[in-house]
Write a structure and sequence with these properties.
Elements lengths: L3 H25 L2 H17 L8 H24 L15 H4 L3 H11 L1 H7 L4 H12 L4 H8 L3 H18 L7 H16 L3 H7 E10 L11 E2 L1 H13 L6 E7 L2 E8 L2 E11 L2 E8 L2 H4 L6
Parallel strand pairs: 1-6
Antiparallel strand pairs: 1-2, 3-4, 4-5, 5-6
Length: 297
């Protein structure tokens, strides 16, 4: 039978679990890796001398961030041998519940989008940690410095470098779920109806398609560029789909995405970046390892 102290420790940890998972996912871009990090943080918390902990939230974020940095250094070496383009694992989100305030939701949404997570892949683990804690969660520089065991001046320098890099690489638009939903439905209709001209009208002239299969499913091994090539690829995919495929629109990474599934097994996730009313980038995730967490969707 658990003691009062053990129960209290569990309650405190569970209260902060969503925050810790949010930090870990933004650091790693993988649900399974994030859950492993949070579990490791729980083990550290359960065995810690909690009488010495004045602020459990800061303590838990510090542990989680350091564990995520260590895990990121490990997985970055694995990604060097990844087959084809690498995309973050799609994450089911409900940002209206976690960030009801419009301004807060905008920050949360941007920091978890596929586009920004892809840009963050080029940051060093320390830069990424500083960016996540500062930009996504609004931590003061002093607290970040303490969490990372760095000087505040060093953290400010890391933050500035990371922010400039992300600003240069991220898309020049905000996620608009209603617009995403509309374009997704129109694209499905155009592709299913063999309407190539209608499909081309939905795509920006310099549209790109990024497919992630990890070599475990059929997907392009290079980024496809130009509206014509993207449209023709989508046409080809639509014609070759097996029978019995079903579709569902859901919120992933703060935006609307299309989940294709067959017999309850996810086949792919498709999501768009939209700029000036047209689809700028098409992301398709087909690596089955990255779709496992969507089984219940």
């Amino acid at each position: 039978m658990p003691t009062h102290s053990a129960t209290a420790a569990t309650d405190v940890f569970e209260e902060h679990r969503p925050l810790l998972h949010g930090v870990a996912y933004r650091m790693l871009g993988r649900v399974a890796d994030s859950e492993d990090v949070v579990q490791d943080a729980w083990l550290r918390w359960a065995s810690a001398d909690r009488s010495e902990v004045r602020e459990p939230r800061a303590y838990l974020v510090r542990i989680t961030t350091r564990l995520a940095i260590d895990r990121l250094r490990q997985v970055q070496s694995r990604r060097e041998s990844y087959v084809g383009p690498w995309l973050p694992e799609p994450l089911a989100t409900d940002l209206d519940a976690t960030a009801p305030d419009t301004a807060e939701r905008a920050v949360f949404t941007e920091s978890v989008t596929l586009a920004v997570l892809v840009v963050m892949e080029s940051l060093s683990p320390l830069e990424r940690a500083v960016f996540v804690l500062r930009e996504a969660f609004g931590y003061p520089y002093a607290e970040i410095a303490e969490a990372l065991d760095r000087s505040e001046a060093a953290v400010r320098q890391l933050a500035g470098r990371a922010r400039r890099h992300v600003e240069e690489g991220k898309p020049r638009f905000q996620v608009d779920p209603d617009r995403q939903r509309d374009l997704t439905e129109r694209l499905m209709a155009a592709a299913a109806g063999d309407d190539l001209e209608g499909l081309l009208k939905l795509l920006a002239a310099d549209a790109r398609l990024v497919g992630d299969s990890g070599g475990k499913a059929k997907a392009p091994l290079r980024i496809i560029e130009s509206a014509d090539k993207v449209a023709r690829f989508l046409f080809g995919v639509t014609r070759s789909l097996p029978s019995g495929m079903e579709y569902a629109l859901l919120e992933l990474n703060g935006g609307i995405a299309l989940l294709a599934h067959r017999g309850g097994t996810p086949d792919s996730v498709t999501q768009f970046d939209v700029e000036d009313g047209r689809i700028q980038t098409v992301y398709i995730v087909r690596n089955p390892d990255k779709l496992a967490s969507l089984m219940a969707s």
